[in-house]
Amino acid sequence: MSLGAESSLQSSSSSEDFAAFLDSELELASCDSSPNEGDVTNNEEIDPPQRSKRQKMEGFETSEDLETERLVKPIEEHIGTSTLGKNVICPPHPGFFKGLCIRCGQIEEDESGVAFGYIHKDLRLGNVEMARLRGADLKSLLHKKKLILILDLDHTLLNSTRLVDVISDEEYLLRQIDGMKDDPDRSLFRLDSMHMLTKLRPFVNNFLKEASSLFEMYIYTMAERSYAIEIAKLLDPGKVYFDSKVITQADCTQRHQKGLDVVLGAESLVVILDDTEVVWQRHKDNLIQMERYHFFASSCRQFGFNAKSLSELMKDERESDGALATVLKILKRTHQMFFDPLLKGIRREILQGCKIVFSRVFPSNSLAQDQPIWKMAEQLGATCCTEVDPSVTHVISTDTGTQKAHWATQNKKFLVNPHWIEASNFLWQRQKEENFSISNLPSHTTVDCTAKAQESVQ
User: Fold this and answer.
1) Angle separating helix axes 13-31 and 66-81, nearest 10 degrees
2) pTM value?
3) Which of 30, 317, 332, 360 sits at a 20 to 30 Å CA gap from 195?
């Protein structure tokens, strides 16, 4: 069983890590079972603790998304059929699924930890496990050069109104909807199941596309989940941006307040876009407050505005310099300011402690310090020099017959080809020197370093 492989929550690094954790914990628990327990056949009696747990798992209801079902169903099956819970000490419990510890199978005695209902309605995680997951998420996101973006829905990305609140000056919108049902670029939708009209904010599709390359994105709304899921389908029909990361009112741990305690991501990486500041009392430093989008007349009345709405004026925000286009520029700048100095520091750790001499790598009439491979090695934290001495750790060469190559062999130093540096740069990790010997270097110089690097880690 591999939960990490079966889960489709690939867009969330925390979800991937959580699935991998569950997989490893449950496999370890299975290994701790007695030898005879693993040999039970279909005709043999299952012991009472197993039967009890299996009964607890009966009545499983699939979640709204197939992806979530794939994450939790293997957990359910394993807890239901294994011998977890037999004198297993599990302090502290990492979390509970359907009232059973996801590691040892013990029944939950109190509702400790935090519920993650948007992942699955029966999942709770303890503080220690949440901290571990956030640490793993931090490492993963930094590796992918991404931050976390929390997005409000109403008045930030869109505006909705009840059909009964549509005034006479807005009835033309109902006629427009009938004529644009087959238009893939439409921004006005009628949600008959909810008796509502929804207008997407201009530029929202481009905003989400561009922001997704820089951020892992969550929806976080005070609306009910049924509404949020319908809106998420409009914004992200292919589940490219949010997938299961839709947090709603029911997930909040404090009344009338939104909090990052239900986000499995490091708070230091979070940027929040919301039109309402008061709901983010605990996280104001992470908030970029948006100008409210009042498309419908009911929205203006809700906030006490006497002016006519955009719909009444039969106009809209401009895409080129509207609120979303403006804040996207801020987000790009924020991302750049965060990662530019940080990435330099991370990159310099890759070959830190390595002292390198190059031999027959550059043209004889060139200045070594000006060569791209020399600069790359320095960016990765290595010290480069032109002559060997006892402190040198690596000789980079394309020829085993050079004097410096012989010196490396005699003094038991690493003798590698230049692709060792390039592969370490591409994969952000020091590569095994034995996979980059000079004897493995092809006679031609156009080698796919990335492919070679990937082969070396398999």
Assistant:
1) 10
2) 0.66
3) 317
